[in-house]
Amino acid sequence: MATAMENRRHPRIHREESLSLTLLPSGSLSVSPDDRLYLTSHDVSLAGISVELPAPIKPNTDVELWVALLEEHGTYHLYGTIAWCAAPEGQLLAGIALDLERADGRLWAAHFDNDGFFND
């Protein structure tokens, strides 16, 4: 049986980044500031980010993110979809699959080398 590590498309690195996450309700054109969560990342990769959550989020929920990278790498406006939500070891996490074709997705991708490793 393949492990989760073997199924990953890109390497993950543990990084605590500040981000705001907005849930995008289906069919809604406006999102109120109350819908925004302020979170910390657990790890990042080229195509995804896992975040620590205060409450569960359903998989397949579309989200909008603003990620502020440390070391003055800037702030990135990204879109994605909740791929999974679970509580390994008692900590509630969600994995967000990023849509690199929208907003700052290509600028985000520029921080990773050809093998998917983050370039500082």
Structural class: mainly beta
Q: Mind telling me the CATH class?
A: Mainly Beta
Number of domains as seen in the coordinates: 1
Report strand %: 35-45%
The average pLDDT score comes to 80
What's the Cα radius of gyration?
A: 14 Å
The CATH topology corresponds to Thrombin, subunit H
- For the record, the CATH architecture stands as Beta Barrel
Q: Estimate the helix proportion, in percent.
A: under 10%
| Major sheet size, sense and barrel closure | 6 strands, antiparallel, barrel
- Enumerate how many helices there are, as a single number: 2
What is the terminal-to-terminal distance? 34 Å
Arrangement of strands in the largest sheet: 2-3-4-7-6-5
CATH level-four homologous superfamily name: predicted glycosyltransferase like domains
Shape field: globular
Low-confidence stretches: 1-6
How many β-strand stretches?
Answer: 7
- Following the backbone from N to C, one meets helices and strands in this order, namely HEEEEEEEH
Subunit arrangement of the protein: single chain
Domain PilZ: 7-102
GO molecular function, one term: cyclic-di-GMP binding
InterPro entries: PilZ_domain
Protein name: PilZ domain-containing protein
Provide a descriptive summary of the structure in words:
The protein has 2 helices and 7 strands; from the N terminus they run αβββββββα. The protein is mainly β and 120 residues long. It has one domain (21-109): Thrombin, subunit H. A 6-stranded antiparallel β-barrel has the order 2-3-4-7-6-5. A hairpin with a 4-residue loop joins strand 5 (62-69) and strand 6 (74-86). The longest helix has 5 residues, at 105-109. The protein is globular, with a radius of gyration of 14 Å. Mean pLDDT is 80; it is low at 1-6.
